[in-house]
Amino acid sequence: MRNLFRAIVATLIVCPALAAPAAAESDRWEVSLTPYLMGASMSGTSGIRGREAEVDISASDILSNLEFGAMGILTARKGNWGFGGDALWMALGATTNRPDADVDVNQGGFAGYGLRRLGAGADLTFGARVNTIQSEISFKGPLGLVVEQNKTWVDPLAGLLLHTAPGRRVGLRVYTEVGGFGVGSKFVWQVFPTINIGLGSKASLDLGYRWLDMNYEDGEGNEKFTYDMLTQGPVMGLTFRF
Q1: What is the number of structural domains in the chain?
Q2: Structural domain for 95, as ranges
Q3: 159 near 9, Cβ under 8 Å?
Q4: Which range (48-57, 125-134, 144-153, 224-233) has the least confidence?
Q5: pTM of the predicted model, to two decimals?
Q6: At residue 112, does pLDDT exceed 80?
Q7: In sequence order, what are the beta bridge partners of 69?
Q8: Is residue 50 helix, strand or coil?
């Protein structure tokens, strides 16, 4: 599956760069802000201090244990160049019976990237994402043992943003990326298509689906940390243009 996505994304990045002429530059900044919600599910392997477990959490499970969440995308461009950011933060809390403990997990991803227009419907993206995971397990009982492990790492990213021409009542946007390359994660890929329905000249309703896969590993023995996880789910947001 991952090799297939690598081939698809590599093809998407190379072909438009060879085929599409550069679009005419604009002399004003075009800014858009998109707060969104994601019905995320997670599957893969997670390990804290050398102890690994298979993870298969549905969107309803995440929602029932969600204490706080915030997600949003910002892009700004002028002419053939621009920049953007994508922020995601989830705070999850749950109580387990086996063992009898309270589990708290905070997970965040904060990406910043540059944009280079390749043509009327394609942009090259390049940047990095800061990933952070804060895990704590508080065991109940006379000992009151608390086990925690926090990790923060940075993944370089490169990708392609495909989109229909602006001004249409209904548009399509597809964001793809690959990254990690052993600098942070072993490998990262993301595919994020959305349909954009115009609500006027300055706003649109965005409906889509997001796949984000990360494979990160650090440390050895009792200090080993593993995060090999696919996060996916439907997305709904509103885009405001300024």
Answers
A1: 1
A2: 2-241
A3: yes
A4: 48-57
A5: 0.81
A6: yes
A7: 90
A8: coil
pLDDT at 153 over 80: yes
What type of residue is 42?
A: M
Q: Residue 189 and residue 181: Cα distance in Å, rounded?
A: 10
Strand partners, 116: 81, 124
Q: What would the DSSP string read from start to end of 113-158?
A: EEEEEEETTEEEEEEEEEEEEEEEEEE-SSS--EEEEEEEEEEEEE
Q: Which residue has the higher pLDDT, 27 or 182?
A: 182
Structure tokens at 116: 């280079």
Please enumerate in sequence order all residues whose Cβ is within 8 A of that of 143, keeping only pairs 6 or more positions apart, or say none: none
DSSP 169: S
- pLDDT for the residue 134: 86
Residues 6 or more apart from 187 whose CB is under 8 A from it? Answer: 2, 6, 178, 179, 180, 181, 215
Tell me, what CATH number does 26's domain have?
2.40.160.20
Tokens of 231: 């996060």
Three-state secondary structure call for residue 44:
strand
Residue 216 binned pLDDT confidence (cut-offs 50, 70, 90): very high
| d(C-alpha 165, C-alpha 231), whole Å | 29
The strand pairing partners of 205, in sequence order, are 197, 238
pLDDT cut 70: percent of the chain above it? 87
* Residue in the block written with tokens 């021409």: 165
The amino acid occupying position 242 is F
